């Protein structure tokens, strides 16, 4: 195989990869991801909103993500959270619920069938 074809194959392979978050820099909104034998430099992760309305939800170390690399170059990659794993399984298998579980045991669930919002935590405040 010639060198040009080898390079094209490498770029195609790197367009979309899966990996595991190894480090998170909260102050600069960046993470590092291990994919196969490679580890990325500091890269951005995608979030739900980043305009007038914004969300903050950093990835966790050990969380599986999808790496999307513009042009197949891992230097341009960003992380798309998240993929369930044995370490981080889904908090519910309900067909009708939206559930968010936090590491301290707190969680909230909205069950559409019953139109019910249920929250559990050490302290729940409402305004």
UniProtKB/TrEMBL annotation:
Protein name (database record): Phage baseplate assembly protein V
Q: Which InterPro entries match?
A: Gp5/Vgr_OB, GpV/Gp45, Vgr_OB-fold_dom_sf
A Pfam family: Phage_base_V
Q: Report the residue ranges that make up the Gp5/Type VI secretion system Vgr protein OB-fold domain in this protein.
A: 17-84
Signal sequence extent: none
Q: What species is given as this protein's source?
A: Escherichia coli
């Amino acid at each position: 195989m010639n060198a040009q074809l080898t390079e094209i194959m490498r770029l195609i392979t790197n367009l979309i990869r899966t990996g595991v978050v190894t480090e998170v820099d909260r102050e600069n909104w960046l993470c590092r991801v291990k994919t196969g034998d490679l580890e990325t430099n500091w890269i951005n992760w995608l979030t739900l909103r980043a305009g007038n309305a914004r969300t903050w939800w950093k990835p966790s170390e050990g969380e599986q993500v999808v790496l999307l690399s513009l042009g197949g170059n891992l230097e341009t990659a960003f992380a798309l959270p998240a993929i369930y794993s044995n370490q981080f399984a889904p908090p519910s298998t309900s067909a009708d619920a939206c559930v968010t579980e936090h590491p301290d045991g707190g969680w909230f669930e909205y069950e559409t069938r019953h139109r019910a919002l249920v929250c559990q935590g050490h302290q729940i405040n409402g305004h």
